[in-house]
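User: These chains co-purify. Model them together.
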Amino acid sequence: MNRYAMSIDIDKCTGCGACMIACAVENNVPPLPQSNDRKGITWIRVFPVDNGEQGDTRQSAFLPMMCQQCDSTPCASVCPQQAVQLDVKTGIVGQMPERCLGCRYCMTACPYHARYFNWWDPKWPAGMEATLNPDVAPRMRGVVEKCNFCHGRWHAAKEQAASQGKREAADYTPACAESCPTGAIRFFDLLAGTPEAGSFRLLEKLGTETKIYYRSKRAWVKGLAEAPDGKEHHLA
Amino acid sequence: MPNQLIARGLKRCSTAQFALWVAPWFALLAYGVYAAGLCLVKGLNQTNMDNRFAFGLWIFLDLTIIALGAGAFFTGFLLYIMKMKELKGVIYSAVVIGLVCYSGAIAALMVDVGQPVRAWFTFWYPNVHSMLTEVTFCLTCYLTVLIIEYLPILLKNRKLRDVPSFLVFEFELHKLIYVLAGVGTFLSFFHQGSLGGLYGVLRGRPFAFREGLAIWPSTFFLFILSAVAVGPSFILVTTWIASKLTRKPLVKPEVLQLLGRISGVLLSVYVLAKTVDTLIWINHTSPNRGFAAWQYYSFEPFGTWILFLEIVGFGLIPALLLLSKRLRQRPAILVSAAALACCGIALNRFVQTVQTLALPTLRFDPFLSYWPSWQETGTFIGVIGYGVLVYSFSYRYLQLFPQERELAALPVVEEEQVLVER
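Assistant: Joint model of the two components:
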């Protein structure tokens, strides 16, 4: 049994986007040149945010967002055909594109906007197909997808552990955590460790029991976890 | 030469006039089929929906027309179960409206999903906790009931009545009508409610989320109440429009007034329930989830005016107008009040579907805007065209209004008698 989680140090995030690239490559996310800011697929997305002030008092930060892997999932309960499931053995919220109807009800239900719809057929530029990860199936047009903590890696780690006569997948780390050059993203098992003191989760009062923990020394960054306050906090 | 398909004793316009009337609606239907076809073939990238505005015009259309179509089951319930015989004059028209609304909504839903060929998965792998599963099951079953209810109306066609086995079939179906009315009422209560629950259960969207009774959020009950309140109003409005277009009375004024009174009483109860629900949501439900209700209305154009318009302008005012016997007797006021009530339900469904998605949930979220693409509006228009066509053909070739002959002061011709004489 595991309860996988992530801890993200916002103060360490430089917004370089390495996690987004690593995620897309690992999980065969198509490039979709025809998409825009709101139709693209980014299982992890680094949001540039600010404190809502102007001039000298303005401060900014980068906040990586992915599926928050809720224990009390708003999405799984609404899916009409059980294409979303919380795996109690790992704590990972899984998405089955093969069963997805594409109704997008789960996207409406998610307050973190961490779910993405395949508005187009997945296509890769000629020659780039060779770079596809054979452990992860590309998704077809008309279905929803999202971060699953690199499930392909989890399967590979399980297989490797099994070949060594072990039960637990010891060397399992999602691509984003592995690729972060500043070590801002830490992947861990809540049954074996705890998030750092002072960590917070987004929209805790909703009771979704997320497993992505954020931390920052700046009070305004912590405030971003709360409901909107009427100010603009997103960088254009 | 009289058209052999038109019932005896009924006056209808010439075929040429009818062709002129239906031609533009056929054009709209063709436009809609083309727009929907593009979405089906090329995908939902043809729409202006996106990952943040995952639902759009079509869901608004579905929720609104299903609520307006509630007149079908509720009129059937009042007539066959509650024995309000006066409503016999509009029951066939109500069934056609119900059929149009539900089949139109299901057609739009099939375009709205990314993988329509997987629709059967909902029946094969149903998630019993999902309101959408409940909606899918009830809508499918109720559409089947509506088709069965439509059959006796269809079999009233003059040509079809020449076939003796059809007469027997129609007679047998009539025996089932009480069962169908009961089943239809049961199914409709659930799907109207689960459409309300669709948004009411969204724990991650505090603007839409409501607490309630057991597994059902308050919107479950509010949607049922609002649909049964407005369903009769929509029957009233459509009957009045049909009457104006055909330049003849189709039902007795008392029937329309009765529909207005039913709407008025139920709308009053709904306005009261909606007000109480809104107060609980503002003071309890939303703040408990960390969201102050005032901030929802700080994003223009969705100010508090929209809440006021929904509850007072399109709720309380038409309810009061419809409750007054004196005002109900004035057709202009009666129809205007019913139309206001219909606008109210459309606004309520708009708020539930579109405003919910426009509002930010995260502090660093922007307020979102969405404008449907021509393919979305085209499909929407196509559904309207389809509805008008089905209603027009049904009116012309079937007997939608049993009181029409009587009101036209035409000699009543008993078709059965004619058949016997043959």
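Chain A has one domain: 4-223.
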